[in-house]
Write a structure and sequence with these properties.
The chain is mainly β. The protein has no helices and eleven strands.
């Protein structure tokens, strides 16, 4: 079992920045892939970014603005979000894969005002 706890969400003006963090209850050395997803009201949950060891992938909509990273000392996966847009407003979820199972955090709200 893995417990995940996201933090760092909030309200920000367009063009601003936020840094999300997801703390895992186990050492992330044992976790191969970690990722961030988001779900806007009335829309399906979508992939934002993943990191598998040193390899990262991003949704086209966030490329060049968001950066995903892992902090092995703190057992966290982080999402630095710059140049935020109103369309980035969503609940952001952390997801990790451990063996054949995946685990989700409870989500953190990000609201970008225009």
């Amino acid at each position: 079992q893995v417990q995940l706890a996201e933090s760092g969400g909030g309200l920000v003006q367009a063009g601003g920045s936020l840094r999300l963090s997801c703390a895992a209850s186990i050492s992330i050395f044992s976790i191969n892939t970690m990722g961030w997803y988001r779900q806007a009201p009335g829309k399906q949950r979508e992939l934002v970014a993943t990191i598998t060891r040193g390899t990262t992938t991003y949704a086209d909509s966030v490329k060049g603005r968001f950066t995903i990273s892992r902090d092995y000392a703190k057992n966290t996966v982080n999402l630095q979000m710059n140049s935020l847009k109103p369309e980035d407003t969503a609940v952001y979820y952390c997801r990790v894969w451990l063996g054949a199972k995946d685990y989700w955090g409870q989500g953190t709200q990000v609201t970008v005002s225009s």
